[in-house]
Structures
1.
Amino acid sequence: MTAKPSPEKLLALGLSFWNAKALLSAVEIGVFDALAGGPADLPALTKKLGLHPRSARDFLDALTAMKILKREDGIYANTPETDLFLVRARPSYVGGLLEMANARLYASWGHLTEALRTGERQSENKEEGDLFGALYADPDRLRGFLAAMSGVSAGAAQAIAEKFPWRDYKTFVDVGAAQGMVPVTLASAHPHLSGAGFDLPAVGPIFSDFVAANNLSDRLQFHPGDFFKDPLPKADVIVMGHILHDWDLAQKRQLLAKAYEALPEGGALIVYEALIDDDRSENAFGLLMSLNMLIETTGGFDYSGADCQGWMQEAGFAKTRVEHLVGPDSMVIGYK
């Protein structure tokens, strides 16, 4: 028999912002950092986090019911996942993305309806029309943005290190390298590789600090430049992660053509994103990310693996393939 329709899923989706904001606020006020040294009871956490007595119990118990805290005999503790990924002092911290979501994206998504009706971006400084100019002009916001990019790239970087045949190559450059998560991950996993990060000059000191903290300054360097104005550095492999979706179709094609030009014969281009499935019916994250590009950029959009393969072939790449990485992320590889 067919089950009777229920509104439960629809109501849960419509109110899912409750869950999101509870988690984002927990990261912001340092709940998981406060528990990194060990479990604590309600009075101790309330005082340590500066919570109001009216809010503390419901807030911490809600996090417990959401399975992002544990509670036993009135004592709260991190879960294995939150202790590994949401404690700021750990190298595995991915909360930078959540910090950016809390500081910027949460408010911007409140204007989704307007974006859907106008096709215009809705994030801060929308009148200026240059999201990246505003971000890169403010050192503190830039550091937060680059840390967020590390968070969103960490899992994909590890998968690329494992799945791509790096034994066949010696050098690579990460275009739009941000803080340097991808170069650091690749160089750490493959001692024979040397590489570089290519990004706007303001990123250089942040990239160098991150590389130095991972003891890889001898094999990783920074190349300053603008990938629309300057030629890309030459290397055996070029990586573009979460870059193409920022731009319109003409700009996407321009970047792929520049990558083709910079590669040697036999070289490879790796493009990775939350690729939309070819049928556009399964990868909800990829489709929602494309709506995020609507809100954040003037012409950006996400795309399928088949789309990217077609653009690569137009640029001259002789062979292309798509391979899943982790979660919603996949990579498209083009060989020259």
Note: The longest strand covers residues 319-326.
2.
Amino acid sequence: MTLYQLQVFLAVVKTGSFTKAGELLHASQSGVSHTIADLEKELGVLLFTRNRNGVKLTETGNQILVHAREIDNQIEQIYHTVASTKGVQSGTLRIGAFPSYSNKVIPGIFQAFRNHYPGIELLLLEGSYAEIESWIKAGAVDLGFLPNPCEGLDMMVIVSDPLVAVLPATHPLSKQEVISIEQLDNEPFLLLKSGCESLVINAFQENKRILNTQFEVLENSTVISMVESGLGVTIVPSMILSVNSVNIVVKQLNPPIIREIGLAVRSKQNVTPIVRAFINETDSWLVKHVDGSTASF
């Protein structure tokens, strides 16, 4: 049994798919499938059941998962130790992030990082997708949180953020469990111009439906307030929603629209020990708190 086989096993568990696990690990679907098959052959047990809806852990696979995660945690500690010997003791790390991400997960990630690396100063710069991209390319920040893909930068996808439909509480569709793009055809629409609007526009175009845009809005809180006032419906990343929102209903989309968020750097070949330590800490925190994905440059 190899460490790579365990990494592939954990990636399949987290994504529920050989194909998605391959995307995380920058490997082919067939490569992931062969790796799992070799591991099952070596252990003499089935780890997953396969069907057209994906893969699911067997009872034995669930038992092995506990030990695999323990091994993964130990490997993480080894990386922490090695990072310390390479000088990850002091310095400054500059990080770019967009507001909805900063608000939801940055505090937890920063606290976890400081617990392990108290001598590193963290500087956060908030901006739009375009600003963060330009900061990374210019060297103004060491790395940044951005949606995937991002042309010209090396990216590690760390978490998926599904988009959701947001409607006034009195809307005729408010009682439905899920909403389709077809049902929003020609509805008064509030388009959030935060950088992921292309996902919404593409979804309407692919389904040959009319996106009846009434207003284009820049701020997350503004678009939700406008829905609360009954001015229209919207589709936004689930991450921007607040538990304090009233007079709205939030519905899952079918088929789903997913925004992938990753950590971007200018070049994965020139990642410093401090940056690598932050990437590892971010991934570890997300796995525990936001069902994030494990990957590395």
Note: The two ends are 22 Å apart (CA to CA).
